[in-house]
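Two proteins, back to back. First:
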Amino acid sequence: MARTKLPPYLDERGYLYRLEKAREIAARTAGRDWRSTARADQLPPPGDWRIWLIMAGRGFGKSRAINEWAIEQARRYPKSRGALVAATAADARDVIVEGESGILNIAPPDFMPKYSPARRRLEFPNGSIATHFSADEPNRLRGPQFHWAICDELAAWRFEAAFDNLLLGVRLGIDPRIAIATTPRPVPLIRRLLDDPTCVITRGATYENADNLAPAFLDAILSRYAGTRLGRQEIEGEMVDDIAGTLWQYGWIERARLITAPELLRVVVAVDPAVTAHAGSDETGIVAVGVALIDGLPHGYILGDHSLKATPDEWARMAINAYHQHHADRVIAEVNNGGDLVAHTLRTVDANVPITQVRASRGKAARAEPIAALYEQGRVHHVGVFAALEDQMCRWTPTGSTSPDRVDALVWALHDLLIENTPTGKPLRLKLDW
């Protein structure tokens, strides 16, 4: 029986992808022509451009578009050199190279590259080579030269120098170009590209790729983000600027966002209870926050936003559930409007939960300002995305009339963990320039 010829996935260690994987790729890509199946907004624009920026919502097909463009460049210019750059080394490998829309999964059988993980290199049949890089290591992009490059999720890159070094290195051949895919965020690098006359921009929303997205994904993302500031950014692909006068900026939250928290020293659940319980009532803010020491400094970690509009019994049960869910040490409860009834309501659900009652002696802005300063310093991290909380943070202004219940709970928790009762045992005193 003749042996089936596998695509050239051989790396230095002699590892071959499974035969089933090779057959699956061959079956999926046989006879396909990306330009005949792609949407018009996934194809590179005509004309003389240096940079193509796809700024669109999640699920739009941005990564697929730039990965297909990279394959086209490698085929069009034999023996060319390309750069594949993502926010981290894992992103470069998992999204650009090996992802569902990665080059190894979409390249046609007659142009399947050989992947050498140790060298971070894809070698195409015509001699073209593409090397993947992490934007977290900008100096690796200082020196190498390229004919073309792609950048994934540029707005999430930590160091603008990574893009500057790449831009200077894409200088080979007669028509060096860069294709970029990103969700829009109001960071300086994206603003710079929007003003660059050599940059052409493709915009789009999640909905435009609905035919290729799982209904469960669409339902989840719409139910979570629709109608929020974050939804305008993550779904509509809109550049949402920070509102003048707010204490928080979305960029601060995004730069410090994490997927998982480190080992925490303490966890508290803060509650800012609503005074009434009817259709027009305010929400009860319920936010879980932890603290850890990083390089000797306390950092805060937002673990959960459980805020809701509810009766006293309902919000008390939610707060106690959050206390147990996050293995908290105590509940911090504001009692300005409820006095001892707030603690009593919580103890009717669980009499054993430790409760610290706090009373506001200063205005909301005075309490929030030092917390906003910690966000600006990168000392507070959201572990995941809390769309409603972040929307309220980045929209509330101290001169506004709205009551930011989620923000109040957040501020009480962070005050307790990072300012009043720090892990170092010394209260934090910030010199603020507001």
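And the second protein:
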Amino acid sequence: MSYMFEVRRLRLLLELAQRGTVTAVAEADAMTPSAVSQQLALLQREAGMTLYVREGRMLRITDAGWVLVRHAERIFEGLEEARAELAELAGLPTGPVRLSVFPTVARSLVPSAVSRCRERHPQLRIVVDEREATESIAALRGHETDIALVYSYALLPPLDATGVSLTRLLTESFVMLLPPERDVPEGPLQLATLAEEVWISPYDDTSGRAALDRVCARAGFAPRVDYASNDYTVITAMVRAGLGVALVPRIALEPGDTDIVVRPLVGDPVSRVISVATRAGTGRDPALRAISADIEAVAAEQTEPLGTH
């Protein structure tokens, strides 16, 4: 028996495996749900086997479907490699390139990196948006973005980066912020000594809050969180106002934050790896290589060891 699979239908099967519902696939691909269902049904007919079964609102991929998903991933990686090699032959990097970043690096690393890249390659248009790490991975798989800065905490399970290539940019440590009037010893603090403090942290459903809960549990207490924000500038302002203490990435510190007490923790128990993420197979693309090089250069310049005050 010979199999002839239509590439666009394979793409829809991949997205179904990642998103779980026809509605989500349809929204991502600007199609109607009925059109997606029809294309998936045609693919199933081409395969001559059941590729998915309905379970409530979700479609569960079968063993046969996962076989096809795995081969489809290799097919699309090969197509990405072909496109990257053609772009390499064309010479100069061209755009647009869509860059997704999370808020901390959007403020600290990205403006300088994009500015530097535009100066070196004025013909390269770079479009930047903000997404959290898991959203950026999904956007890469769905061809909604081309390159992303993502992070993963050492304390937490790694990112599911299937179909994505991760290149480590830096490992970022976290520091404690305490209100300006606090008289604390110089040098690293023991986390357990902060058990009775009021804490300011990211929201409950974020990896930042999960990491805080995990590290505090290891120190023998649960943090009392009275204030929450996903914006580290807001968290810093709350600490400055004396509302509590916070655990923040070093890269979130601003040059003007000299009035706040900043201390590392003994043993650096919280860290996260920041990586450059691209779709597998795109490594030779000149445009992606250009912006990656400038991101790496700016990261090296801006992440020198910081003093405490």
